[in-house]
Amino acid sequence: MLVAGVRLRASAENVMDEHFRTSAREAEADAFKAFEAAGWDAKAPTYDRLTGRVTAHVVEPLLDAAAVGSDTRVLDLATGTGTIAAAAAARGAVAVGVDLADGMIDAARARHPDLDFCQADAEQLPFEEAAFDAVVAGFVFNHLPHPERAAAECARVLEGGGRLAVAVWDEPERSRFLGLVSEAIALAGLETATELPAGPDPYRFAHDAELQKLLTQTGFASVAVRAIEFTQHVAGADELLEGIVDGSVRTAKALERRSQDQRARVRAALETIVAPYRTARGLDVPVVVKLASGRKL
Questions:
Q1: pLDDT at position 257
Q2: Is residue 14 exposed (0-12), middle (13-18) or buried (19+ Cβ within 10 Å)?
Q3: pLDDT tens for residues 186-197?
Q4: Where are the domains of the chain?
Q5: Distance (Å, whole) CA 39 – CA 251
Q6: Minimal CA–CA distance to 255: which of 200, 191, 201, 203?
Q7: The pLDDT of residue 34
Q8: Are residues 124 and 186 in contact, defined by beta-carbon separation less than 8 angstroms?
Q9: Mean pLDDT in the chain?
Q10: Cα(152)–Cα(137) distance, rounded to whole angstroms?
């Protein structure tokens, strides 16, 4: 009896430990989402100065991969300033854009007053099942604490046979738009990991196998992953650095908290690192994006 009692007590303690671990993980995820929402609220007015120009290269390939055309009911996940939703509408689609950040929704509504935008969490969408024929998700899955939940939500709101198209950044060693500034911060000797809330690996889905698994395990068939490569021209190191501050959250926060002297060190380091990309006109920065698409079973 004593042994049985010890086993029951141990089992109860294990259950409690797992409960506390789960609660801690959810609290961590909620804290990261709040950090991201506040960050993107602040970046809404400046996002398109550079980052929006970069991500605009992927708009048409995303819509093509999701087979968006006339009368397609399309959900634009993490719509930002509404660029993808507007491009979908230009094809004759019926577009709805959602974003976690109220500031982005305000910006999207101001720029595209004839379109439908609302605040929503990608991991818990406020739509009925089979409400859409297509979902496009530009640069959002790399920000999510629970991307599997978001992919499952995309499947839930899609009509059978509907398509999902997802874009994420490739590794910074290949996609230099973000990589150059991150490397300059490191070269300047500035630590960032301890200054930001715990969050997901921003480059997990740069690996084809991870993107493939995400979609196939959440109800999608005929999944294809490919790389989109292009060059983004910027005037120089200053425009690149300011553009990252204006159009990112985690990387920007690592810079915004620094002293003027520390930021000057980052700027000097960046000037050295960008040398291979310097041209007579400024900088030609390589960008690589991974695009995955699949059909709901």
A1: 82
A2: exposed
A3: 999 987 655 678
A4: 43-173+200-232+286-296
A5: 11
A6: 191
A7: 95
A8: no
A9: 93
A10: 13
